[in-house]
Amino acid sequence: MSKILIPSSGPDDWKQFLAQPDLHWAIGYSARTLAHARESATGLPTEIEAQMSSAFGPGTLLFAIPEHKTPLPGGKRESQSDVFALVRHSSGLATYTIEGKVDERFGPTVEEWLIDASPRKLVRLRHLCDRGMSG
Question: Does residue 42 lie within any of the structural domains?
Fold first, then answer.
């Protein structure tokens, strides 16, 4: 896959990045709703800005990538986030992966996800925990 980012000319440009565009691009679903919300916004969503600011001070969105894929060990495919954001804070740059939901759960919780966990799930979780401890 190319590492070249193509600017968006509107919400419909986000559809091409979905894993299952025909299934996930519908009114009332998070992918389409998030695309329309982000394209009409001028900065970070207020809820996200509040979380970031409490930890790092006010931030400025430099760019966002819809449906960003992150390779993780132990998985059959990449993990896909609704939005990847690069944000500048007075203390430096920060990256965020953001999930949006409409009428869906954020779950399962990690505790629920670990019930009868496969070895691959454990590898992914260990990788994420190790990254959090080192960064």
Answer: yes
Element (H, E) at 62: strand 59-70
34 and 64 assigned to the same domain: yes
Q: Would you give the DSSP letter of residue 18? A: S
Q: Decide if pLDDT at 74 tops 70.
A: yes
Which residues form the domain of 110? Answer: 105-135
**Rounded to two decimals, what is the model's pTM?**
0.78
Task: Point out which residues pair with 95 in neighbouring strands.
Answer: 86
CB of 119 within 8 A of CB of 76?
no
- Asked whether residue 36 is domain-assigned, the answer is yes
Q: How many domains does the chain have?
A: 2
Percent helix, strand and coil across the chain, each to the nearest 5: 40, 20, 40
CB 14 within 8 A of CB 67: yes
Structural domain contains residue 5: no
Q: Tell me the average pLDDT across 55-84.
A: 90
Give φ, ψ of 127 to 5 degrees. -60, -45
Q: Specify the DSSP element, H or E, that contains 93.
A: strand 92-98
Q: What does the alpha-carbon distance between residue 58 and residue 39 come to, in Å, rounded to a whole number? A: 21
